């Protein structure tokens, strides 16, 4: 098991100014008049200073996480095999393709090896570029080969520095989004500081570097920044076209780098759909965003050799359904309140039915079953019946796919982030309900509006989108802990925007009958500055202590196993074992695997369940037959799985296998009435006794405190 131990000593006050309001100096025909020369100069100066601060904070964040990674593992001092082992589980699998491309005789040969891969899944040839999102590894390996940096920078450093560099892009995008929403770069500064001080809950890049989300989320943040700018009023046609292009590029890169892109963009599409139905976004811009999502995903589909899982995604079905339904219901936004509500209900039902029909039709035509495990998991998670499905239970029992722990909120509250976020969320939700009701009832067109203008509640389209975005992704994070990073980073943006927003403070002061323009300006700058000072004084010493804490990578058992495999087994040997360990075997040794952690394939899921019978109660002959059917030469057994204590009874891997096989689970506790005792003992325990029924098929060739490797006999 990989651990981190304490390292042994070895050898060796800002000015912030609002951007001009969107409604300032606007002619009745929509054209924008030039402002006074002094104001324009001040605006240029403010943008320049804000831009410099954004870039500086982005680079500092990049250096910060890189330093934490180095200090945690002593990465520069450990051996190559230890560096590779530090890329745990699926991270190691993805990095192995970068390594494979680097070591190939030529770029063409490297690409051929990925398109016709027969080492990732034994007795099968698969297309890695079609199955997995590894174009970033391909691009990076090609870049490393063609740039004159081989003598100065090792491939692993080029890879991890690129990921840490993307953190700079991420922070800059969050900064810009908050700036665009509030009109002041002070808001961006606060968002970036919150992102850094809440690092435990906003990113995990320093210890899961190659994870797909670490590639994708910076591009998602850029896309949100571009959408925020797109939703502003009075954009020139050229500005709008350039912004749409930026949205498309960011959407495409986000989709290309993460297999879960379709689910994240479906939530985004739902946000657009809700706001469009409530007349809170310009319909033309929403239509363009639907089209961009579809076209970006289809382009990725082409690059991934027409991956059927993309074609069968709910996102494409939903977006197409919305566009069709809108064409059918042309007068959706006309009429009184009851009329509008009736049309809206019919519209939602029509979109829902069309989505299900189109999706069902596509999956039927393509015979698509790659994502069925996700829907089984969701069905079981939200209480629509218990399941014995091995794949669904595997997800249900993982902490990362459970509910968001309550201690998350205490950590976020310690930086004041959650308190401010909750306050701003409440205010803007009330404002959104008022605006939505006014839009649906048509009361925004009444003649008394001019007299009541002082009391009218407004919500700009970009703020409305940010509100619904944070609510939907908040629901996702609350239900699935692994997805919290999509929410917490935007939480920083949303809270800082609210704290620095003229509209928010204007609304509060008007409710308290204390509103003046000067008072609003004083509060919108003083409160964020006080918050920044509080964060700095409270967390700066802790950050310095964190950066000075030196540790060291320590996993001698895994290192010993990998070195033994490289020295004592042929290059063509096929290994079976747990998904997590085999990813490291492929990266460190280049040996062929029977299964791996990239779980988005039905055949692989079936294969993994069969391989995992090594931890079930099965006869030795049955296990041998299963392993040989996948061409296995060696099987690796892990004590940490065979005698697992990390999960409670019912969630241990051996329990999941017992239930799936219809057997009673080990230990004290209840069992379902139809489960029966197995006729055989647990394979991983019994094989260590060297009984004749086992030694006929299996010979132990390696053993340490954690791992046991057995060689399979050649007879059938």
From TrEMBL:
- Keyword hit for Metal-binding: no
**GO terms assigned for molecular function:** mannosyltransferase activity
Q: How does it sit in the membrane?
A: Multi-pass membrane protein
Which residue ranges run through the membrane? 41-66, 179-197, 217-235, 242-258, 264-281, 312-329, 341-362, 416-441, 462-481, 487-509, 521-540
| Family listed | Belongs to the dpy-19 family.
- UniProt protein name: D19L3 mannosyltransferase
Q: Where is the signal peptide?
A: none
Answer whether the UniProt record assigns the keyword Transmembrane to this protein.
Answer: yes
Q: Which UniProt keywords apply?
A: Glycosyltransferase, Membrane, Transferase, Transmembrane, Transmembrane helix
Q: Read off the InterPro entries from this record.
A: Dpy-19/Dpy-19-like (IPR018732), Dpy19L3 (IPR047465)
Q: Where is the composition biased (Basic residues)?
A: 1-10
Region (Disordered) residue spans: 1-32
One cellular component term from this protein's GO annotations in UniProt: nuclear inner membrane
* Organism listed in the record: Quiscalus mexicanus
Cell location: Membrane
| Source superkingdom | Eukaryota
